[in-house]
Amino acid sequence: MQRSVVNPVVVGVDGSASSMSAVRAAAGLASLYGLPLQVVHAFNWLPGSPAQTDAHPGATAHDLLQRAVIAARQVAARLPVGTRLLEGAPGSTLLRQARAAALLAIGDGGLSATVCPRTPAPCTSPPAPPARC
Prior knowledge:
The chain is an alpha/beta fold. It has one domain: Rossmann fold (3-Layer(aba) Sandwich). Helices cover 38% and strands 16% of the residues. The protein has helices at residues 17-33, 57-75, 90-98, 111-115, and strands spanning 9-12, 37-43, 81-87, 103-105. A 4-stranded parallel beta sheet has the order 3-2-1-4, with helices on both faces. The longest helix is centred in the middle third of the chain and has 19 residues, at 57-75. The protein is globular and about 40 Å long. The termini are far apart. The model is unreliable at 119-127 (pLDDT under 50).
């Protein structure tokens, strides 16, 4: 008997409010389409790097992933949620994870708070044109 592969909805988290919003949106979509959710956090483990101010980055990252799981379960309590803590630059690491994903969700880094006016309507933009391959 052959097992079918179910590609998850992958969401990247960095602890920001926008990444947690992305987790909630991804959880809703994963639940709607009957897909599992994979929460991913990626960062460089280089000690002493200028951006490294946390004395215990691994523990902090695991805590972040657990907070994201809680946020996802608040949207869809029975949703299968997995986590991955990966080493590497966040952008390229998430793009690698997207290869096996049904959907990749990321936050906007707070951009909507500075670009979109504060109105009851959500901030939207037209879809990107198809890539020419």
